[in-house]
Amino acid sequence: MAPPPAPPQKSPSPSQPSGKSEVSDLKLQLRQLAGSRAPGADDSKRDLFKRVISYMTVGIDVSAAFSEMVMCSATSDIVLKKMCYLYVGNYARCHPDLALLTINFLQKDCHDEDPMIRGLALRSLCSLRVPNLVEYLVAPLGAGLKDGSSYVRMVAAVGVLKLYHISAATCFDSDFPAVLKSLMLTDPDAQVVANCLFVLQEIWNLEANKSEEASRERETLLSKKLVYYLLNRIKEFNEWAQCLVLELVAKYIPSDSDDIFDIMNLLEDRLQHANGAVVLATIKVFLHLTMSMTDVHQQVYERIKAPLLTLVGSGSSEQSYAVLSHLHLLVMRAPMLFSSDYKHFYCQFSDPSYVKKLKLEMLTAIANESNTYEIVTELCEYAGNVDVPIARESIRAVGKIALQQYDVNAIVDRLLQFLEMEKDYVTAETLVLVKDLLRKYPQWSHDCIAVVGNISSKNVQEPKAKAALIWMLGEYSQDMPDAPYILESLIENWDEENAAEVRLHLLTAAMKCFFKRPPETQKALGAALAAGLADSHQDVHDRALFYYRLLQYDVSVAERVVNPPKQAVSVFADTQSSEIKDRIFDEFNSLSVVYQKPSYMFTDKEHREPFEFSEEIGNLSLGQESVGNARRYDESDKDLLLSTSEREENGGPNTNGPAAAGYSAPPDYNSSLVSLSSQTQSETAISDPGMPKHTSQMTLAIDDLLGLSVPAALAPPSLKLNPKAVLDPGTFQRKWGQLAVSISQDCSISPQGVAALTTPQALIRHMQASSIQCIASGGQSPNFKFFFFAQKLDGPPSFFLMECIINTSSAKAQVKIKADDATASEAFFALFQSALSKFGVL
Amino acid sequence: MLQCLFFLSDSGEVMLEKQMTGHRVDRSICAWFWDYVLSQGGDPSKILPVVASPTHYLFQLFRDGIIFLACTQVEMPPLMGIEFLRRVADVLTDYLGGLNEDLIKDNFIIVYELLDEMMDNGFPLTTEPNILREMITPPNIVSKMLSVVTGKNSNVSTRLPDATASCIPWRKTNMKHASNEIYVNLVEEIDAVFSRDGALVKCEIYGEVQVDSHLPGLPDLTLSFSNPSILNDMRFHPCVRFRPWESDQILSFVPPDGEFKLMSYRVKKLKSTPIYVKPHLTSDTGNCHINVLVGVRNDPGKTIDSITVQFQLPFCVASANLTSNHGTVNILADKTWSWSIGQIPKDKSPSLSGNLVLEKGLQIHRLDIKNAPSQPYKGFRALTQAGEYEVRS
After folding, report:
1. What element of type H or E holds B388?
2. I want to staple A808 with a disulfide (CB 3.0 to 4.6 A). Which of A162, A391, A782, B339 is the partner?
3. Which of A441, A464, A479 is the last residue of a domain?
4. E strand or H helix that includes residue B330
5. In terms of Cα–Cα distance, which of A385, A350, A319, A359 is closest to B354?
6. Does any domain span residue A686?
7. Is A723 inside any structural domain?
């Protein structure tokens, strides 16, 4: 993620000094005061320093006064010292040569008799962050770590981390990590211990990829001995240090169930801590420890319920927001957990919208047989809310609950009452929902159609609602006496209709109506087709043309294509895969929960926590594509049901991405077929919107549609691979970073293959037989991750790199291929697929 | 790990910047954030607490016209960021005697000093006000007087807090006091929602036991309640020992010096509330008559005061003319009306349109102090206040 171009700096407002003259004036005054020992000199210095710092604070560059400030720094006044430290810390980096001037007085202060001054001086010294002054840091830091005052030791511990960031080599040469380690295990002051832990974690996390020793050191941070040592002292730590320790414990792998119960007993009272961050961190420990013990895990859910509800209700709305995001995650895994506590999620008038929105999601998620009536009653209250976006959300929530099949009868009545409220946005939202409901519960059509028929189409303006209304007019035209005439009047106003989505639906509805009531609709259909053919929107034009030709070809075939008998939709596709949800759950108590995305989708590579899923390959996998991924999920999140045209608009980048590039049919013909194929899909069964559609599948679908016979198996690929291909990991990593993804696709694995995939090695050996080598692998059942590579046998050296993520529970493999020669990657993928299909069979 | 803190005014101006780590965060992030606020309608109080900018993840907290903005690029527990900002706001409010732009600008040196002690290299250190106050003296009138008299005006104490050396981190080892007293304040908040026909939809009570302690030496206190069974989910100050509470529902603790929150709790379900609000709406073409009645449901035995009724009229209301037979009616922004009633008079029920203060809930049974050299003064006060009292119409 590239930083945005820096916006132009705001020009200083009139009240601020315009710059140079002020600064030179300050410099002059400071110079005069520098050597003065007159009484009151400190007071005047203080005023001047204050002015300098206030300029610095508002963002004016006062670095020009650097040497004067340093000259004035010889003082015994601690406030002056602090201001000076602040100033020096801010500007030392851009004046490394002048920073040398400060070393002297900072080093002197490091020997002051007052521990506070020693600590502050050491902190400032380490915060200069000037690489060529590193040599001056080592001695004071070493002394600081042995200082008699815990305050100084605490500052020195963090100072080691600062030194590490300036010069890791110096840090290791001085053996500071070892000193920290012994301090961590022996220091009587808990804050010193916590700071040592914090620093060691940071250092070893960053070093772990570079050396064996460092990754061993990182392991020791998770050793039983250390974890118990910290747990036994946990009450001595302050709240923030407790969070740190708890984060560490959450990563600890207990040896047996006694271990687990010991830890939980030690931590039980942390659930009653006043700081919400401590409570949430404790909950994470409990959930992670008991992951493998189903019964206990359930008890943990019961135990953490009350503290979580308290966190939601008391405290700030910011806290409620963060905690509600976590509850949402929990409720996905344990739907019954909060089913009797639904009242805690009722919205308060004064809740900010972001909290209300999450509460609505919670209410939707916890609705079941026992509480649906109350929850829906409550949600209906919000439909008349003054806050329109929330009113809309709550209507949608009612619809989602209805789609979950609880007490549909009562809900349909409520929805129909919404239509009688005669508020435009309520009507609009409700129409969309009624459409979804009818697709799932066709048996309710009579009740719904009676009410929908009374809605004047003039009162419906929002494209989505209008499209829904038109869809119902077409689908149920036999039950609505006025349907042909309403459609006719809508078609008459074709030119005023801005949304292509609505025009597309008008075409289809006119067709459907025509098949049911030909004499009444013929004229309207003719007008619609004529208008559609003249339409400037490509999809509308194509659909009209397609319908026209279809009708010309054979009316009964046209009816079968446009208006086939439909099955009720049983389950609407979930917007996020369960794998992703599990992944987010692993990252409980982190920002990923708030964003509802695993962290690999949004954090930068260099900042990611290396403690995650298969470290050694984790580092290879991140690049631009993860951003694309995240966006894809976002888009598919937008609506419960994606209508055709919408998918084409929103999902444009997906369908037109790598797939369109390799596709070479005539453009207009092509796109109408594509739109049809996805239309039939969305009308009969909702395909997984998260799944990208790609060349081979698309071709298959279209071939199928045209009645072409599809060969049962793919033809053997012509590509030949070098059976002895060699690639070192460094080159792999570099190539992986440089090349663009040429293919990104899902494929399925045979049941035999799933059964054979008990360890990554099984697949690695199998692939070797097909000249596909593995360079890194990781994970455990059900999730595996592989990095493969292969080399073309003849011609110039050309490599294929591949990332393959396999989930055995869904029998799916997600494949990303990058290649030196992107044109050949299609053939390589085919080869890989055929090899994969044989896995476990032989 | 927070990389940087910014304070912004409610017009988006950067008032203060504190870099925490070697990765400097450019000020341009504030400009991005402010554009984001404007794109969301310009009201900082309605912005999500966690926002993703193209380069950083931002935590933001809006308090008293000041936006506290923290930036990070790494994964971290969200509540840690949010809670820390809240502590910063609380500590500053405590130190400066309030929070606004001018106070921050006038005292920015103190703010820097405090931030320096509260966080080092992006990791929170101490946020306990009692300990901070020993390191950095608050800018109060007494210290100003002292500086005039003695000619010294350092606001930094010359000694480090003893607590850093004590085994009880929240208390000095050797405390001497002229006064010898402790005050306990019980504050409970009722949040309730009623349906339009007056039925109770939801009622929650949150309580806090606040203590202001000025006791010498190392006093060991126990506090017991006469009806602890109504408590639901408690959270305690670190000074409270967990075992005595587990076994006997007794709070046993060595208090920090000064004001602190001993415990907070939730009260189990309540069936009725002390006051009622009955809105009545009748309408005919284009005209709507509103009538709101407020009264005491069952006399709690104590006076209820500072009752305020607030309600928002929908945007379709063009004008409104509301009067009351008691108290004053004011119009706030966004068609929000506020009706201050004060105390409910005995002879009539106020009619028209609740923050209210009333008394109910947990009662203190007794407080024993052991280990104290002389008999101290014990002060108790119990107070229930309505948080959100919401009636639908």
Report:
1. strand B377-391
2. A782
3. A441
4. strand B328-331
5. A350
6. no
7. no
Residues A474 and A437 in one domain: no
User: β-strand B181-194 against B377-391: which pairing, if any?
Assistant: parallel
Amino acid identity for residue A332 in this structure = M
Could you tell me if A437 and A527 lie in one domain? no
User: Could you tell me whether strands B220-225 and B364-370 are parallel, antiparallel, or unpaired per DSSP bridges?
Assistant: antiparallel
CA A457 to centroid of chain Cα atoms: 40
Residue B303 predicted with pLDDT over 70: no
Tell me which residue in A7, A115, A307 faces B31 most closely, judged by beta carbons: A7
Q: Which residues does chain A have within 8 Å of residue B201's beta carbon, measured at their own beta carbons? A: 343, 346, 378
State whether B155 and A191 contact (CB < 8 Å).
no
Same domain, A431 and A464: no
Cβ contact (<8 Å) for B83 and A198?
no
Residue ranges of B 178-197 with Cβ closer than 8 A to chain A: 191, 193, 195
In contact, A151 and B160? CB cutoff 8 Å = yes
Packed helices A150-166 and A190-207: angle between N→C axes, nearest 10 degrees: 10
With CB atoms and an 8 Å threshold, state whether B46 touches A343. no
Q: Which residue of A has its CA nearest to B334?
A: A386
Other beta carbons within 10 angstroms of residue B346's beta carbon come to 6
Q: Is residue A378 domain-shared with residue A422, that is, in the same domain? A: yes
Q: What is the CATH number of the domain that holds A796?
A: 3.30.310.10
A240, A348, A589 ranked by CB distance to B390: nearest: A348
Strands B66-72 and B4-9 come out as antiparallel
pLDDT tens-digit profile of A133-143? 888 889 999 99
CA A768 to each of CA A130, A788, A803, B163: distance values in angstroms, whole numbers, following the listed order: 51, 10, 15, 65
Shared domain for A430 and A469, answered yes or no, is no
Lowest mean pLDDT among A671-685, A763-777, B23-37, B203-217: A671-685
CB-closest option in A244, A274, A314 to B236: A274
Rounded to an integer, what distance in angstroms lies between the CA atom of residue B350 and that of residue B340? 10
Q: Is the pLDDT of residue B80 over 70?
A: yes
Mean pLDDT of A141-163: 92
> Which pLDDT belongs to residue A11?
41
User: Could you tell me the residue range of the domain that residue A397 belongs to?
Assistant: 316-441
Contact across the interface for A313 and B204, Cβ inside 8 Å: yes
Residue in B83, B121, B154 nearest the CB of A161: B121
Contact call for B83 and A114, based on CB within 8 A: no
> Which residues are bridge partners to A778 per DSSP?
A785
In total, how many domains does chain A have?
Answer: 3
Q: Is the domain of A410 the same as that of A514? A: no
Between CA A546 and CA A542 the distance in angstroms is 6
pLDDT bin (cut points 50, 70, 90) of residue A603 is low
Chain A CB contacts of B30 below 8 Å: none
Q: Chain B, 63-102: which have a CB under 8 Å from a chain A CB?
A: 73-80, 82-86
Same domain, A433 and A320: yes
> Are A115 and A151 contacting, i.e. CB atoms less than 8 angstroms apart?
yes
* Residues forming beta bridges with residue B391, ordered by sequence position: B194
Beta-carbon contacts of B354 under 8 Å, excluding residues fewer than 6 positions away, are B275, B277, B294, B307, B308, B309, B310, B386, B389, B391
* CB-based contact A268:A307 (threshold 8 Å): no
Nearest to B76 among A7, A150, A591 (CB): A591
Q: Could you tell me the two tokens for A510?
A: 């006119």
Whether residue A326 is found in the same domain as residue A402: yes
Q: In this prediction, does ipTM exceed 0.85? A: no
Verify whether the Cβ–Cβ distance B201 to A321 is below 8 Å.
Answer: no
pLDDT at B137 over 60: yes
Q: Report chain A residues whose CB lies below 8 A from the CB of B57.
A: 591
- How many Cα atoms are found within 13 Å in the side-chain-facing hemisphere of A769? 12
Mutation target to probe the B interface, by most B beta carbons within 10 A, among A318, A596, A626 is: A318
Answer yes or no: is A97 within a domain.
Answer: no
Residue A340 lies inside a defined structural domain of this protein: yes
